[in-house]
Design the sequence.
C-alpha cells in the first residue's frame, strides 16, 4: 500500500509539471478582460450575463429542465458575429458550464458531456485568453473527469490546478480564480486535499470585490459560491460557530440563494 501511494504521488507530480510546461509553451498571448470588452458595451444583451445565467439555472432547478439555459446559448450563438471572439467564447463557455452543473444536479451525467466538450473547445480555440477564461477551463476540465478512472481523474485534476494557479498569476484581484482552486481542493480525494489552503483561498475570495472594474460585460459571479463552500468546509470540520458567523453574512448578501438556504436548513438540524 505504501509503495502504491509513493508511485501515485510521483506520477501526479510528473503530470503537474508536464501540464505547467505544456501550458506555458502554448498559451503566451494573455490580455485583461477589460481590454477585450472595450467597444462592446453597446451590446446590452450581454450586460450582467452571469446574473441572467444564474437566474436561469435556479429556474432550471425548479422545473427540472435546461430549456431556459439553452435559450441563452442560442441567443449568444445568434449574435456571435457582433461580439469580440474572446467575449463570446467566455460567455458561451460559462453558459455551457452552468448548464453542465444543472444536468449534474439532476443526475444526468452523460447528458452534460456535449456541453463540457463545447465549452472546452471554445476556450481552447480562443487566442486572447484572460484569467477569467482560465478559471472556466479549470472548472470544465474538472467536470470532464466525471466517471473517469482514478488515473484519468488525477491527470485532469493536475491540469485543472495548473490552469487555476495561472489564472491567479494573471489577475490577483480575480475572486473566481481563488474560488476555482478552492473548489478543486474541495472535491479532491482526501489524500490529496490541502484543507488549510482551501480555507485561505475561500476567505480571500469572500473578501474581494465581485469585479474590480465597473463594466457590466465583465463577470461578477462567484462570491455566493465562495460562501457556500466555506460554510460547508466548516460544517464538515464541525466548526459550527464559524458556520453560523459566515452563514449570517451570506444570508444578508444572498437572501434568495437556494444553496445558502439549504445550508441554513442543514445547520438547523444539527
Sequence:
Amino acid at each position: 500500500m505504501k509503495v502504491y501511494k509513493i508511485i501515485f504521488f510521483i506520477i501526479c507530480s510528473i503530470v503537474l509539471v508536464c501540464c505547467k510546461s505544456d501550458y506555458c509553451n502554448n498559451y503566451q498571448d494573455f490580455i485583461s478582460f477589460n481590454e477585450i470588452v472595450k467597444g462592446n458595451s453597446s451590446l446590452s444583451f450581454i450586460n450582467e450575463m452571469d446574473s441572467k445565467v444564474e437566474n436561469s439555472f435556479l429556474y432550471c432547478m425548479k422545473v427540472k429542465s435546461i430549456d431556459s439555459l439553452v435559450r441563452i446559448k442560442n441567443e449568444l450563438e445568434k449574435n456571435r458575429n457582433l461580439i469580440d471572439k474572446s467575449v463570446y467564447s467566455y460567455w458561451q463557455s460559462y453558459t455551457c458550464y452552468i448548464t453542465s452543473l444543472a444536468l449534474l444536479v439532476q443526475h444526468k451525467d452523460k447528458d452534460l458531456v456535449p456541453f463540457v466538450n463545447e465549452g472546452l473547445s471554445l476556450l481552447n480555440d480562443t487566442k486572447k485568453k484572460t484569467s477569467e477564461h482560465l478559471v472556466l477551463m479549470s472548472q470544465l476540465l474538472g467536470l470532464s473527469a466525471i466517471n473517469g478512472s482514478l488515473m484519468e481523474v488525477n491527470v485532469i485534476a493536475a491540469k485543472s490546478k495548473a490552469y487555476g494557479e495561472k489564472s491567479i498569476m494573471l489577475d490577483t484581484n480575480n475572486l473566481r480564480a481563488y474560488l476555482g482552486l478552492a473548489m478543486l481542493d474541495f472535491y479532491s480525494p482526501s489524500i490529496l486535499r490541502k484543507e488549510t489552503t482551501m480555507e485561505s483561498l475561500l476567505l480571500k475570495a469572500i473578501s474581494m470585490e465581485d469585479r474590480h472594474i465597473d463594466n457590466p460585460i465583465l463577470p461578477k459571479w462567484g462570491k455566493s459560491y465562495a460562501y457556500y463552500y466555506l460554510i460547508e468546509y466548516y460544517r464538515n470540520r464541525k466548526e459550527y460557530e464559524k458556520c453560523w458567523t459566515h452563514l449570517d453574512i451570506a444570508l444578508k448578501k444572498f437572501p434568495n440563494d437556494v444553496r445558502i438556504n439549504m445550508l441554513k436548513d442543514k445547520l438547523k438540524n444539527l
